[in-house]
Amino acid sequence: MERPSDGLLTADSESPEDVTPLPTPPSRPGAGKAGLPVKVQANFFRVNIQGKCIYEYTVSISPEPSPSRKVELFKLLERSRAQGWREFIPFIAHDRHAKLYSVRELPQPLVVDVIEKVGPPPHREHTFTFNIKKNSELSMEDLSKYVFLKGDLEYRNYNTSPVIAAYNLILQKFASSTATRVGGGDEVRSGCYYFKDTEYRPSLPKYLQPQRSLSDRLQAWGGVFVSVRPVRNQLMVNVGLCVSAFHKSRNLGEAIDIFRRASHGADPTRFLQKLKVTSQYRGYVTTMRVQEVVDKPPATLRFQWGNENVSVADYMRQRYNTTLRHATDWPVINVAGKKSPHPVYVPVELCWIADDQLYRGKLEDNEAREMIRFACRKPDDNRVLIDEGLRLLGFSKPNVIGAKQPTPTNVKIDNSALGNFDVTVDPCMVDILARVLPCPKLQYGNRRLDNVKDGGWNTLGCKFVRGAVVESWCVLNVRDGPVQPSTNDLTLESLCKDFEKKCKDCGIVFKSAPTILKTEALPDIQRDAYRRQALAEVHRVIKNWCDANFKRGNGNRAKSSFILVLLRRRDNFIYPGIKRMCDLEFGVHTLHVLIPKLGSTTPSKLDQFYANVALKLNIKLGGVNHLLGEGDVRWLKQKKTMVVSMDVTHPSPGSHVGTPSIAAVVASVDDSFVHFPASLRCQISKQEMIGDLRAMFNERLHAYGGRPGTLPERVIVYRDGVSETQYDAVLRDELQSIKGAFADKYGNSPHPPLTLVVCGKRHHVRLFPAQDQTSNKTGVKDRSGNTLAGTVVDNTITSVFYFDFYLQAHAAIQGHVRGTHYIVLYDENNLGSDEVQQGTYNASYLYARASKSVSLVPPAYYADLACERGRYYLHNFFDGNELDEDRRGSAGSGDPKEDDGRLVFNKALKAWGEGVHGNLKDSMFYI
Question: Residue 879's closest CA among 843, 850, 908?
Answer without folding.
Answer: 908
